[in-house]
Fold these 4 entries.
Entry 1:
Amino acid sequence: MSFRSNSLGFPAGWLLLLCLLLTAGSAWAQEPETRRDTLVESQIVARRSTDGLSLYRIENANLSRLITPMGEADVVKQVQRLPGVSFTMEGTSAFSVRGGNMGNNQLSLDGVTLYGISHLLGLTTIVPSEILSDTEFCVGGFESDDGNLLSSHIRMKSADGDFYRAKGTLSLSNLMASAFVTTPIVKEKLSATVSARWSPAQLEYNALAKRLIDEDSGLPRSIQAGVYDLYGKLDWRPAARHQLSLSWLRTDDHYAFNGAGGSSRDSLGWSNNLILLHWKGEMSRQLTMSADVSANTFGSTQIQDRTLYANLHNTSLGVQSRVQEYQAAVTADLALTRPWSVRMGADFRHTAFNPAAMKSGGSHSVDWAGADRSNLAVLHGQLSYETSRMLARLALRLNGFQSDDGFRRLVPEWRLRFNYYFNDWLGVEGTYDRMAQFYHTLEGTPTGITLDMIVPAGAYAEPEKADQVYLGLMAHDNRGWSFSAGGYAKWMSGLVYYADAGQFFNLGTLGWKENLDIGTGRSYGLELLLQKNEGSLTGQLAYTFSKTDRTFPGINEGQPFPYKFDRRHMLNADASYRFAETQTFSHGVSAAFTCTSGHYETLQAGWYLPYGLPVDEALTYYTHPNNYRLSAYIRLDLSYNMTFKRPRTNHDISFGVYNALNRHNAYSLTWDTEAGRWKQLSILPIFPSVKYCINFR
């Protein structure tokens, strides 16, 4: 790995370095790779047969078979292996869907949006799989209560606590230790669930750094890293068909390290704090109602304390961002005369945004009084007709949005979904979605780490909008095989391009509104998915062919240019084989293969001496943004899992190897002026993982 930190901007270079060093020493398996100056173009997921390629249902039982860098079950890593989904930075939690930006995806827990989902610089996500009952990933044909998004929605639902007996889990992997327990407090009436995870990354890094890092290397000999998440939930059943729950989620990531020579100290971090009160009741056989009240805060911080010269001491600069949201929602589901059903609801959000609040001097506090505030009120409803062969649904939303700068909009949305089976094995699916998003994400560098700014729409930037259409075929048999194939087209408007993301991470965010360019995007593609979900051998094969571009009036003379993560071809193959099991032992192997087109980079096309100007150095020029496609991305992952069964416990041991080929997949290229050559940055090398888990039941 070779790079110059000043070419990426603080703290991007250090972030990428830490991402490598936190791999418990395996990063040194990647040798520096150079390029000359001549550039050349270069089952896990289970779903119902009627869901097609618009809705995927992710089974918790299969999460343990997924091969991830940390060996941790991770819903987002599951999603990244599906058709239409393009990952961004290798091994991290960031992704784009059907040509949308990363910030156009929504991830929610029990209906509350999580704005920062990364743990350990994106190597895993903040929601432990043990607390979930089921997860859905929707990319089209959205329901009426899916809103404020443009691409996809990962709907995570927490599991109810156990009202009859206590059970729990303890586990330990490379970089994460966790505990989970659920127990009745009052049998059949009141239960409690608690989950806690903590990462020993600081201890591991510091122990390795003393042996592997020289004092003159310029790399930190030690770091401070605090990574944890806490989850708690109380479930109360006051009556037979009513339940009240109170849940809380707290996550925190923070990192600090001293720069070369001790002249600076850099720190960064992000956190989430969510509390939710939820009620659900069956008012009658036909009517079910639910109501929610929540408070949700996400914050990120970057601070640099530096001594520059003898006469300038303790200079402290920082950027902090925060989103604080209060939400209330009510929903009613009414079963009419079969096969008709209706859903109606209302949602209100009051949100305060503090994007890039600046600080200087010795104090690390920021005045949050200057928040940008917005209100989003929504009325929604849908009408469904569903039989064993057909699903037809019309969903409508009416959004009323208001921001502090006097910006007001009334924005309607509508969605259509139609599934029909001609016979027992062959069907057709069609969807149309008109979507709107009222929060903009100003994506920074490096992508994949939760340090983006989130800002409301306003007079400077209208809400983002998209129209998406999809049509496909579905087929399945009674032996567990299913196949889906379809094509989509998507048109986006109001997209925000943050013209100087590198300067944002270099503490240059004053006047960030003036650095925005508003434009359009378009994407179309073909998606294929073959799955086998039954038997000893299970797996899936997912392929996507797509093309995505962007057009901004102030960029490339208003001409279209490729989207950075427009990977023309994406192929993901997964297979798991379970050997014959006994009453006391079971084991199996898994393999995952990924081959995709490389993403785009913006590289200088050449150099020139300006005519008539008194300068001696050549200047660089560019053809257009994202003018060079990196080489193809290829990765093979392998794992072996075994389970020892005891009367009251199960003991699971997993061994995994992420990037078993130790391939140097390119993330970026930089020009080394002194060496006169291109240097390639690769993120994750071969990455072994071990996880031990004991389940009490």
Entry 2:
Amino acid sequence: MSVLPMKHMIVCAKRHDRKAILEMLQRTEAVEIISREDDENDTVFNRIDVSQSAQLFTKNAAQADKALEILAAAAPEKTSILSAFAGRTPITLEEYETNTKKRDSVMKDVTDILRLDKELTEAKADVPRITTQIEALTPWTGLDQPLSFTGTKKTAAFIGTFPEKITEAEIAEGLARVAPEVEALDVNIISSEDNITSVLISCLKSDKDKIDDALRRMNFQRPPVSDMVPVEQIEAYDKELKAAIAKIDSTREEIASYEDKRGDIKFISDYFRMRAEKYGVLGTLAQTKRTFIIEGYVPEQYAGAIEQDLAQHFDVAVEMADPDPSEDVPVLLKNGPFAEPVEGIIESYSMPGKGELDPTTPVACFYYILFGMMLSDFAYGALMSISTFVLIKKLKNMEHSMKKTLTMFFYCGLGTMLSGVLFGSYFGDAPTVIAKTFFGRDLQVPKLIDPLSQPMKMLVLCFAIGIVHLFAGLVIGLYTALKQKRYVDAVSDFILWMLLVAGLLLFGLTTEMVTGMFALTPISPAAGNVGKVMAVIGAIGIILMDGRESRNWFKRTLKGLYGLYNVTGYLSDLLSYSRLLALGLATSVISSVFNQMGSMVAGTPVIGVIFFILIFLIGHVLNLAINALGAYVHANRLQYVEFFGKFYGGGGRKFTPFATNTKYIKIQNP
């Protein structure tokens, strides 16, 4: 376990090489470039404004991504379940250079796809519009005049609707009440529904104004004006609708014809994304008319190679120096294959602070055990380890972060298998239930502890693991303090607490209350006396030293007594490990329930076996998913709260190199 030492790098080179140098550093993914704040008194160096170029590249990348979305809708990409783990497509530097030359033609394809999508959107919008117009004209199919018809030389015509179902007689009566002086009136109902009636009303031209006024009082509404007979207009709309649908189909086919361009568009999306990121860095560099400076951090193990590559390809001056103690140096962890998978757990909490040890290795050792104790089924662990192992071996281009996660669950599966053997759990009590149900035999699976019948024995094991976990944290804290030459802190914050807690544990194991509660055999009274002495020494030392920053002896004593009260925190931390028992029991009990449910329907030979298999598969898949999630969450909690609380402060800043943060491709370094 280690935190990689860093070098402070300063590169001074010719200005016309800055883009090429940045591209090379971007591909190495080993340099974190830092930007210094502008100095108003600096008249030598300046920074160029590249915001417009960066925005253009970002826009192009977004357009390419949009084109890919459009293409995916028209011609879905054929993928498998494993594609989510496959990672980005690797390409060589030569392939990168070749594809770069096609950027203009690919962007033309992107523009064409976006244009076609706009046409497709417009055609799709036409369909409901035309459909609505057809529906609006449908009630008027019985009318042999256009809706714009207003009458003849001697007559006036009113075409419209009433917002209710009404008869010709009721319309005539209503008009007679409002305009009694009008005698010549003809009412024709074109169509009638529950809440609307379409009519054609005719009268003499001399009575036009009177009927118009009367109709307004009766909530008469006129339809949209059309110069065509409704039937003819509907036929025209039908043709327009068919044309819109045909346009949709042809446009989709045309978009789908770009399917073979998908790879090029993915490349161009990442290409412009990389350029935007490069220009973002370019705008932070200090430059003169002929030179520029890059400043950043490089892991010491890569510093020599980077310096050599820069000197080989460019006319540069490179300085690699140890960072100043006041600098905010980023943190990069380096661990072996066993511990590296849990680096993400450390990063999720906080990177090590200055002078702190990398806790990854001890976290890995306990994490796999704690996870396994909570999932605690050999078959579940085997499924987890086998599936992750196959994925890792099968998918060679898997992203490193995904590979680390799967490797972590591979080791968690091994820990689960170990716990499953310890507790005799293989899909719960499936071997016993299957043997009894289908073969009429009693099968006893060997086990060292039965969590269901021996919960106290299981609880003692959980507390024992918790004690080891807590003391491991104290030992690491002690080592860190000694390494940093904080000798007083080493004694007061770690040694005295280890004496107090260990002494209380020894003394407790001699008392009938503790041993009787957990069904343990009391240890020797002599050991208990040793424990008393250890506890007293630890307690007195804590009282005297915990408030050592205060010069007043009375305040120092009070702070020491308050610090001694924190011994209850150790009891609380120890009780937290009972969750190992709780989650282990949950997994075992739920498994047994599903097994029993399956055995209850297994009476009929063939159908019973089918139902048993269905219940078995569904039940155990759900149980594995739910309890694996619970084991992951609570294993993290035991690390973050109980373990880290004893020695780990964190506060470090993660190393974030200038890299090719792409979505679809990754460039292989030569």
Entry 3:
Amino acid sequence: MSLAKQFAAYAEWRSQLEHRLSALRTWLSDNELSDAQSEMRFAQLGERLREDRLHVAFVAEFSRGKSELINAIFFANYGNRMLPSSAGRTTMCPTELMYDPAKPPRLELLSIETRANNTGIAEYKRFPDKWKMVPLDVNSAEAMQETLRHVSEVIRVDRSTAERLGFAVDDNSLEAFHTGEDGRVEIPRWRHAVINFPHPLLQQGLVILDTPGLNAIGTEPELTLSLLPNAHAVLFILAADTGVTQSDLIIWREHICSPRGGRSGRMVVLNKIDGQWDELKTEAEINAEIARQAESCASILSLPPTQVFPVSAQKGLVAKINNDAELLARSRLPDLERALSEELIPAKREIVRDTTENEFNELNMRARALLESRLAGLREQLGELSELRGKNKGVVEYMMGKVRTEKEEFETGLQRYYAVRSVFSTLTNQLFAHLGLDSLRTLTQTTRDAMHEATFSKQLSDAMANFFVSLREALARSKREVEEIHKMMEAIYRKFSVEHGLKLGSPATFSLLRYEREIDRLESWCNMHLNTMYQLLRHKKGHVTQKFFEEVAVQVRRAFEHANRHTEGWLKAIMAPMETQVREHQMHLKRRLESIKRIHQATDTLEERIGELDQVESVLVNQIQALESLAKDVRQALDAFIAPSDQMTVTL
């Protein structure tokens, strides 16, 4: 199955799943089985499915055919090259290809000068006025190609300006910066580019990241700390005529497969194999030569040979445009596309499926427990009223007194609930004292002061190391608070279930492990790129300090912001079932008491009231069956990834 068809099927699966969840959400709301917390969680779940993105990054040194490979895999059916692809340097800045329907088709360009402000690209995306906007004429291939050439633009600056903007210009790298006789060096004109283009694959959620060579990768923290690590797939492109060069190896080891980084979704593409198509050699000799080159690359990169894919992107693009099946097969591009679709999309779907299923199960369980609680209470009330048939007023008064006693006992038990809420509030405050952004700001400022006051490299190094030690201590204390809150809620859930028959199940669990691993990853990056004796001796204290806070501290803050949002959501989720069930039980006791009071006042209303409750019972049973049917639809959607048929067409 082609990558385009596989991705189209994945987008359709997401759409169907979101539709089924939306139907369940509407039904719950219509039947008064929802609350503000459930509504918020359904809304977030639907938004995640609609906004789900699949990020594929293409990484290579200059002149490896990276842009041509993107054109060949994703945009051949457009009939022409979308990205500029020619000899020499074509993509000078990181370029994202995506589609946001809220924006017109356009090219967004962020000036390289913004590097001097110590502000990340993600932050700049919140301020459109900081970007140069160039309209994209999607009806003209020529006009579009002309517009996209902006990503190739460069400017010439003096060495001090280049260094101020983060480019490490030294005597050994002058050639790479195309230094002129006047000593000025060539750097990219733009720091980042976003191409908003209504291509069907991009409309379905595909995001393509086209990266420049080593010089740009090593100087843009957003790439190495966020965009590349978070990509679902990274295609590392080599050239068949050069194999693995020294700069290729640096990119691979430092930015793609670092010691702490995983290799899931990482593929190596050996491009330009058409250079081996020698008419004086047999096809078997050509294939053997390509195989030897692939095995050599795999050995150097410590990969199995099956993870290296020899292709000719240029011939594959030509073959697709001209519908030349023989040339397409010889280009070996279909082998790469098949591996990409078989590894990338199923893995991504599995992540989305598991996350959605966990959230759905909890929401469904809450609704089911609420219905069952109502039904159990109703049947208890029916049983009481049925026992009153033919009984005198004394018996009715006894029953009324019994229910009143139950109500008073429950209200007495509520004091324990209110006490738990008070303790819950205290523990929550303690949790955010460790995990909150205020404490992180204090730690960041303390670390900044220590680095500014450092007079020796060791003091600078210790300040960075202590920053991560403090972060881990904060997470460890937060973890203990989370465990304490969960233990307390588990006990109160169990107590109210036993004493008052509430159907509460088990409180939702929560883990900070993902944030602990993120801190590990950031420290590993820091120890490789900043906190080394070489870097500390080579660069001035101010430069190291600036890069630490511009590159590392910003990412730490982002991780803590996510942790705070997830923690707040969990705290609401763990308390909401308790609040709902307590409120429901109070209403149930009130209804029971009112029913018996009515019967005490007029015994002829007994049968009428029993008839009313019989009807309500029927409604509740039907609601449980309807909920089960809707939940079954969602489960079927979760498990049914419909593969597109051979007749399915994807318009490109």
Entry 4:
Amino acid sequence: MTPVNFRFETDADGVALLTWDMPGRSMNVITLDVMRELDEAIDKVVADAAIKGCVVASGKDNFSGGADLTMLEGFSRQFADLAAKEGEEPATQAFFDGTRKLSQLYRKLETCGKPWAAAINGVCVGGAFELALACHYRVAADDDRTRVGLPEIKIGLFPGAGGSQRVPRLMQTGDALQMMFKGEQLKGAVAQKMGLVGEVAPAADIVAKAKAWIKNGGSPVAPWDRKDFRLPSGKVFSPAGMMTWPAANAIYRRETMDNYPAAKAILHAVYEGLQLPMDLALRVESRWFASILRSKEAAAMIRSLFVSMGELNKGARRPKAEPASKVKKLGVIGAGFMGASIGYVSAMAGIEVVLIDRDQASADKGKDISRNLITAQINRGRATSADRDALLARIEATDDYSKLAGVDLVVEAVFEDRDVKATAIKKAEAAMGAETIFASNTSTLPITSLAENFSRHEDFIGIHFFSPVERMMLVEIIVGAKTGPKALAHAIDFVRQIKKTPIVVNDTRGFYANRCVLNYIREGHLMLIEGVPPAMIENAGRMAGMPVGPLSLNDEVALDLGWKILQAEKKDLGPQAIDPRQEKLLETMVVKQQRLGRKNGKGFYDYPEKGPKKLWAGLGELQSAHLDPDAIDVEELKQRLLATQSVEAARTVEEGVVTDPREADVGSILGFGFAPFTGGTLSYIDGMGAKAFVEMCDKLAAKHGDRFAPPKLLRDMAAKGETFYGRFPPAKAA
């Protein structure tokens, strides 16, 4: 059969070259067809006595991004169908057999009796790197684009095609575990130092170098298949081994809080596999992989962090009728840290930026933020002085609004005050082109009301960045009551251009992300007021799956910002709109104590110049009661911290603020770190079941207040046994 995804040729020296180049795709991925064709190529190499060995290379800019996860999702659907027809036992066996085929294919390559080498260019991760590891030699391109790694943990999986067994047989066990726990991607030179690749060379030479290794008598036997093989860290049951495993187990629990089954499976697979010959070790790995693939955590993370995020990144919510747009020149009003950072990421994407502030000195100070950010990248070896010069040349710092003439898009990022924003909007409109889209980066103020200061309401939209902009991948696009499709399309195109993930929400105070995350912070405040020990609050947040506790998060976003938001809500909506207990706490911290958070070195934590932050010793004096830690239900604390966010997410769906469950889930994970293992705020409810979630919320509401009361939508879903993804199937592009 003629291969479709590979090209096969043999040179005069008898070395075959298998070039992976899938038609119609920008990136090679592992599919069932790819596996079949690779299997046929192995047979061809083995059967032809004239072929000395084979080099696997890519015909694209990258080697491969790994397996097509929809293929793995297909295994789960097949399991469900077979279980319904023939029972769970035959379905489980078929599932195990199906999910280990890739591992068996790679082992066939590894033991075929002829040498194989991988020529790695660009990205080579996941199942693709496992293919390279099964080859007997690896040559990586010596450039900044080339990366190798096993990032499966980031979507709730772990390396299931030999990676968990081959990596710790090539490098120290502790380093191998860390690499898999973090899902790190390594440059070619670093991978060589760690023993993962044999050679680095200029990209143009990698195929020749790989061929030369075969021509010079490269061995067709993997190190672990030789009788004299010794594990890099020694046997598991040895003094060295016992120095590794207790520490590894402790690190696992500290970093995951036991929320990620895939991380625990890595520990099991490596610990058990290193005590066995390779074939048995791979079988152990396959059993753990099959188990993890069927876990609810993996299903939720694959859906949100791979499928849904991929669809949103491709512009799933973009109006189809609008022509494609590209920002060549961007105006940013407000050169504070937020505005300057928006300018920085835009300039990094090749966009010319006009950075405006109230005076030249303030604008120049904003440009210095970009200088500092790119200098930090230079110090880490991720950029050069030439990169810095080019970046800064693209940013024009000024106090002259007339420089907005000719820009394609304006983003306003001035102080979070209606009057200040109104002034900036009017000055900008007077200077900018009549067709230019205007966007506000407000974090809480409704877009519809801000648009009243702009004559073309249809061209006014919200583009809400998260801090720090250069690290946060989410951008929330807010559609006002009169925002038109052109503005929406331009906003999505811009966000994709700067390589961020866009979610689209309808206008309301706080939009989506801030409504949810401010509930998380408020719950931490109320726990503190109740008398829960501060350290217990913070630990409960991390145990629930959040990246940091609510008090720490409040310090990061600034306590005075929270105070200002609270006062704005009170002014606009009345005193009943806020919790007086929270207002009193923030008034004490911000107004009386001048504790503003990390930015002035003191908030709920103290931030010494040297050493780690520490909870402020004075917090206890703010508590009128001090609860006995042993009498506090930690599980209930965790439920409160997650439920308060998810019930708010459900309210945004009921109100029509969020119309696509993908955006709620992806937005919650990327925007404020909502427990990734759950799949996001709405997947957390779906995973628990609406009925069970409503029952939990009713118990919390009876004990802690109406803020936990489920909205009518949730009660209706609970009565009908519905899920968010069933009731609100992901929307198609308009």
